[in-house]
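dude i think i finally got it to work??
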Amino acid sequence: MHFYPAERIGLFIDGSNLYAAARALGFDIDYKRLLELFASKGQLIRAFYYTALVEDQEYSPIRPLVDWLDYNGYTMVTKPTKEFTDAMGRRKIKGNMDIELAIDVMEMAQYLDHVVLFSGDGDFRRLVEAVQRKGVRVSVVSTIRSQPPMVADELRRQADNFVELLELEPLIARAPVHREERQAYERGE
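look at this
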């Protein structure tokens, strides 16, 4: 990863995409460490985290993470999921955050020198190209080391820099929590 100390950096995290990539590589992300890592690379202006939330659920497994991120330096961008029935009659849930992420990148581009996009979604290739035309460098963080690779080849080619998520693991992975510690945490001890 190459950053300049005076560089204004913005992080744009496609939550479901990053989660899937880290899961495919077998580790969990420590979002505090991730924020500290990029804050040490330059002037971190904003860290956006995008995720869809299932409403009408008594308990959402992602809600504690969303709340923690919201209180610890991340700008949360959420929206409710939509439920629909596909052509085969199966119930599906949809929660795509691509438009929200793209709009925020375009709006923030004038205040940034370097966009760090945590996604492998090929739909973002055109967004990356547009921001580059504004003079902003773009790094894409995803993985080619999973089976199948989680980053689209066209996105990787368009980016100024591709950062392999597996190489960041020692710097941003959450330490494994033992069952007893997790149970104590859940009891509030």
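The helical segments are 15-25, 31-39, 63-71, 98-108, 125-133, 153-158, 165-172, 179-186.
im so relieved honestly
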